[in-house]
Design brief:
Order of helices and strands: HEHEHEHEHEEEEEEHEEE
Largest sheet: 7 strands, parallel
CATH topology of one domain: Glutaconate Coenzyme A-transferase
Strand content: 25-35%
Low-confidence stretches: none
Oligomer: single chain
Strand order of the largest sheet: 4-3-2-1-8-11-13
Mean pLDDT: 95
Length: about 230
């Protein structure tokens, strides 16, 4: 990787520098748009004591759920327990520290972190356990709580296409938390389905500019369906 060329040739190179105890931001929503190969590489590396920020924690045996199997995650900041029985089990047993955050607030925490905004006020969560210990101010007659922005040591992101410069396009709903996570990582790694030559992506269609991206890698994806429902 040299200059503006953000391409790397291996997943080991893509995650070089990820160490125990770091904070990791992960894009995706359920199993839609998750950086599945980067997660697999984290498991292979055996990186531990991680604080992971993501909408949810995958499912049993796939996505971020595989990092729970070897107890690689110390703390999970998420909005949804979902279909992951191991996540629920570790939460209830106290093995895993979990900070549940309203989904919109979690998205704004990442967006604010990427924009350099240290904190913001929101009415969401006021009067609930979410607000415990947080500053409260009233705006237009309505109480709001102060929420701190989130940034991470690494951000792992799944895109559809990218060019050599790291400009990224997401496909439909696979955007979800990915563009937010991409801006808020000190080191942002994006895996994509296709890497094209500079100039091939229509500038108006780029979702994440290359200025936010440090490394890109092209991979093959399983793209599981989280919960298959068939008509009887």
């Amino acid at each position: 990787m040299a200059g503006f060329d953000k391409r790397v040739n291996s997943y080991a190179e893509a995650l070089a520098g990820l160490e125990d105890g770091m904070t990791l931001l992960a894009g995706g929503f359920g199993l839609c748009g998750i950086p599945e190969n980067l997660i697999t590489e984290i498991r292979r590396k055996g990186t531990r004591d991680l604080t992971v920020v993501s909408n949810n924690c995958g499912v049993d045996g796939f996505g971020l759920g595989i990092l729970l199997e070897d107890r690689q995650i110390r703390k999970m900041i998420a909005s949804y327990v979902g279909e992951n029985a191991l996540f629920e089990q570790q939460l209830l047993s106290g093995e895993l520290e979990v900070e549940l955050t309203p989904q919109g607030t979690l998205a704004e925490k990442m967006r604010a972190g990427g924009a350099g905004i240290p904190a913001f006020y929101t009415a969401t969560g006021y009067g609930t356990t979410i607000a415990e210990g947080k500053e409260v101010r009233e705006f237009n007659g309505r109480p709001h709580i102060l929420e701190q922005a989130i940034t991470g040591d690494f951000a792992i992101v799944k895109g559809w296409k990218a060019d050599h410069f790291g400009n990224v396009v997401y496909r439909h709903t696979a955007q979800n938390f990915n563009p937010l996570a991409a801006t808020a990582g000190k080191v942002t790694v994006v895996e994509v389905e296709e890497i094209v030559e500079p100039g091939e992506l229509e500038p108006s269609q780029i979702h994440t500019p290359g200025i936010y991206v440090d490394r890109i890698i092209c991979g093959q994806f399983e793209k599981r369906i989280e919960k298959r429902t068939l008509r009887g």
